[in-house]
Fold these 2 entries.
Entry 1:
Amino acid sequence: MHILSVDQFEQSWLEQLFNRADELREMDHDKKGRQDLAALHVGKQLCSLFYEPSTRTRLSFETAAVKLGMGVVSTENAREFSSAAKGETIEDTVKVLNEYHYDAIVLRHHETGAARQAADVSRSPIINAGDGKGEHPTQALLDMYTIYRKFGRLDNLTVIMGGDLANGRTVRSLSKLLSRGKGNLLIFVSIPELQIGADIKEVLTANKTEFREVSNLEEVAALADVVYWTRLQKERLDPGVKITHNFVIDGAVLPLLKQDMIIMHPLPRVDEITTEVDDDPRAQYFEQAGNGLYVRMALIDALVTT
Amino acid sequence: MHILSVDQFEQSWLEQLFNRADELREMDHDKKGRQDLAALHVGKQLCSLFYEPSTRTRLSFETAAVKLGMGVVSTENAREFSSAAKGETIEDTVKVLNEYHYDAIVLRHHETGAARQAADVSRSPIINAGDGKGEHPTQALLDMYTIYRKFGRLDNLTVIMGGDLANGRTVRSLSKLLSRGKGNLLIFVSIPELQIGADIKEVLTANKTEFREVSNLEEVAALADVVYWTRLQKERLDPGVKITHNFVIDGAVLPLLKQDMIIMHPLPRVDEITTEVDDDPRAQYFEQAGNGLYVRMALIDALVTT
Amino acid sequence: MHILSVDQFEQSWLEQLFNRADELREMDHDKKGRQDLAALHVGKQLCSLFYEPSTRTRLSFETAAVKLGMGVVSTENAREFSSAAKGETIEDTVKVLNEYHYDAIVLRHHETGAARQAADVSRSPIINAGDGKGEHPTQALLDMYTIYRKFGRLDNLTVIMGGDLANGRTVRSLSKLLSRGKGNLLIFVSIPELQIGADIKEVLTANKTEFREVSNLEEVAALADVVYWTRLQKERLDPGVKITHNFVIDGAVLPLLKQDMIIMHPLPRVDEITTEVDDDPRAQYFEQAGNGLYVRMALIDALVTT
């Protein structure tokens, strides 16, 4: 099995994966469990094949594999693989790596569709760790896992997403996944220029998922089970674009939110969530990043277990 | 023992190495064997010391060591080792690394002769993974191993080598090694400007190895047990040089070849072998790259076993 | 516990650490011991977080962890961690890594004080592997360990330090540590422009450690238990500065030194110690680098053992 796109994730498969992630986390937080983990996949190897650096994603995958007892080989300049000849195809590179019998290959590529091309010729499972403007499915997994850990379900949730929704890959993937659940309400908070794309709205409509578009967090804040916040980069906008509302979550926003909700962010954050929010128990963005480790462990575990 | 040059390989040592590579391959393709491999050299360490990136070679060596249960530490920018002082010698660097008691050091260097300099002061075995325009002996090993796996012998073979023979390091090393066998016939296919060097021809003559130089693959294709093809880069030639024959192996060439032969290429390939050839069972270039893994495993295994 | 500064090292803690380093070295030099080492910290992980490359330091730490059986994940371009958003704080990065439950994080940073900032928010032990012009405490540890291995004590020693004392981080740290011992005499050999800083002299005075400043090695050479030599880079000096004495240790200096002493250098060296000195048994700079491995093993062992 290859992991290429959020489109391939069934709800039941997700829940199974998240439960396994919980188990692996528990083992990782216990001295004896750590040693058991390290014995789990001895003799298996993961290849980290990054055509562009993405330190955060790479460390997360490699840590996952190492904790599972696997051997890891790694490159962040896989483009060099083909430099001498100015253009080895991704297919040829993967065919070479197949001969090394890796148990999984984590692929990060600068071109959209590269993961699919790789998977088409690969005997080893390919995990797409981001391909250009395409997919980054394990980011979506960790977002869903974070929600699942908090609420124990992936439906009947009100999720506010804010910031640059037009370009945000994480927000787009999460919206698609949430539309698989029943009774979810998605509220998109942005300026008109950066609102969620028409393609996503079509998916939501097709899946009968209710959604609203607003420009002001304050008017909807009280509804949220989840606020998923991203950066709205003013410096990228045309000078004429007027930002009428506040797109920063700070101490003044906290009282507007329910007690039993969570604030998420894909990180890194700059100033769109102020550090005064960090100590609030509802702020879960660092835990969310940690969930990325455990969900990747569960994913690798599933792929290499035969 | 250091591995510096193809000149040091005895025929019997090669056969022993190749048989060990077969054994390790078999273990690697079996779940239980994998675990046994991973227990083989626990507590031993390999240092990957690359003064210039060569991702393909580095991953192959590191995967080999990891599969054997060794610890690996790695750098691709070893030049930085000496940058602060603008010029630590390779001898000093190796003397420092000797103090770390590595079981093997894989050295890639941009200067010819660097591997020999390193070996002269090293207690840890040095494996030359390419030193400038000098040697790259493990590439030659994997080429020989690929031939040995197919034919079970390293003599009485007709080997056609084509492309840029004047500059091709792999072709030059392979020619030298094949001249050690008895009854081999080497046929060099290129344009006069890129034919095999006089120094290699002297070695062949000294070793009483028959060879021919031709400019057209088609006229000799039917003789080959092995076709070893490389790229002839037209863009590097003087504009006046005329290329009279086809230097591409494509579907039209396949019918000219024997059934019981193999097509090899050091990879990466660009268009000098078309992808329509890939599915022909005689096309063995991807398997050849995989052989690089197993022959390096056998080599490391031999060096670190005491 | 975090390892941030030489100021935190008590004499008794140092001696305990050095004795443990001796034990680990002995294990590393024995086949069975190697395997026992590799089983020591199975299931524990070290993260090598370098915001700038420092291959020498990184390899030393990673080799230490690997020999102890730990898993290692590594980056040399941690700045990229925050590049997308132009400025994730070190605190946020560390908070993410905390979620991965590393047993230790080795941090190299380009900004003075970064290690302290990291430690302030870190649950995992932070080991400062150099922060800008700040501290590099494990370099000081290996220097002290080298002296301790030779003399079995850290007091009643005459230590000559020479070269660029004004800017040398190693010399400054070593001076501070030696001032903790009783009866040490420090002799600083340099030109006036590059003599040891007033801040260090204040520490020595406060600790009642005797010191002298001279400009000529020859006049004091016979006194030394230790000569710690560094490079005096003439090309960095103003053209008007006159260098009146020889700042090179060569064959002519050796007869001036006691038989029972050691010559140290933090490496890399260029020409401030000539290679003819290397074979003299008093030359201990390569062994000193090796001591860096074992003292780091002892340090990691102490931090991850709970």
Entry 2:
Amino acid sequence: MTASPPLHPDLAPLAFLLGTWTGHGQGEYPTIEPFGYGETITFSHVGKPFLIYDQRTTHDDDGRPLHKETGFWRPAGPGRVELVLAHPTGIVEIQEGTLEGTTIDLKTTAVARTSTAKDIEALTRHVDVDGDVMRYSLEMAAVGRPLTPHLRAELHRSG
Amino acid sequence: MTASPPLHPDLAPLAFLLGTWTGHGQGEYPTIEPFGYGETITFSHVGKPFLIYDQRTTHDDDGRPLHKETGFWRPAGPGRVELVLAHPTGIVEIQEGTLEGTTIDLKTTAVARTSTAKDIEALTRHVDVDGDVMRYSLEMAAVGRPLTPHLRAELHRSG
């Protein structure tokens, strides 16, 4: 529609995330069968000091949609990152943490849920980018269990 | 990419929202100058029991991006709707309320914010759809003020 606006200077430390990333991950949790998934993540911007974040995964077996989440990544001063996320499971989440070079470590600082949502207490998220390769891992505290490994994936920048 | 999947039966009461809506609105608040804005809202689905919601506004004066929010609308039993939203201002929000025909009334049931976010306490949202015309109004409680009219707009379905 319109030409891409210039990057907001506050976004420079997070510019290494911009683009579309696709790849494959593995999921596990004590209460479920392990599973493999395909994933696409897009980071974009509109010239303002936040990244627009969109994500979706599909099941390896039949390509059916699995998870989707959407939100914004915000620089929050030197070495700090904030994440605001909405999940279609009825959960919204604030994560905050650190940025060192191209490595991000975040943990949940607040969760809110709708009346009918499942019980997820907290997540941690470790993201590491090496050129056009992104690796992440995620731990989840849910259904009464402490933070436990849940997801890990390797994605490649495709655009 | 892939053909559109069948609508999840739980989504039927909200199917009247599907599509892309564009139009114009007016903003006001005791602490700001009134302003006009253009808006595009998209409701889509992936065959699961939620609507994917994406929204953006631009300023009438120069077309610069104003607000953006993203999240999911969820049917929550007969006559009930839940909304999970992320705002790039560092705020996540749960709204819950009622659906009567094609009229939706929602209010904030939970808000969480990042360390650097501004202080928004609550919003109410009234949405009314008449065929391909959507009208909404929004009240906001922020910066120490009670719920006060903030936005109203009329949008037309364009796809």
